[in-house]
Amino acid sequence: MKEFAPVWGVVLAAGQSRRLGQPKQLLRLGGEALVRRAARQVLEAGFDGVVVVVPPGALGEHVRAELAGLPLTLSVCPHPELGLSESFRAGLLALPPGVAAAHFALADMPFVTAEHHRTLLDAFRASQPPLVLARFGDEGVRAPPHLFRADLFGGFTQSGDHGPKHLIREYGPQAVWIDLPAPALRDVDTPQDWADLSAG
Q1: Which domains are assigned to the chain?
Q2: Which pTM was predicted?
Q3: How many CB atoms lie within 10 A of CB 137?
Q4: Rg for the chain (alpha carbons), in Å?
């Protein structure tokens, strides 16, 4: 059986939910907090380990409580107010030496399943491209989860509330693209998003 270098999943769950007005990580869908649902799906996909990036302070304690009992590595993002870029770096810092790649997922996309995550993992293991990128629906909307090979980690130099778009631009021509269904793109940013999602 072929041996693979470890590939870890990273769930970004340190956001401040400014537009929503309440911590999205703690919202419950089907009786389960969104952060636990997201972490569980990544765990079930078969990664060699999973990091969940959590906020500091009282909110972080609540998020940790929702994750209790899951075999996770937790990483505190000390400055989530500086944007998503800080969460990416906190996730990278928590990875063990020798990983081949990291797969980044968001805590507020509850319909991205373990099977979806596994599809990206399998695509990486098949040819080890620099990027494995997801796109959703007939329109091909690009959105996480995205998987980055380890030699790209040093390029996570972005700031503000976004991921390493410059790496996606640079290495996009070499990327493997995975098509996921449009309903999996649904996320929670605003009260209306949550109302619509809760209503099914």
Answers
A1: 7-198 (3.90.550.10)
A2: 0.92
A3: 13
A4: 16
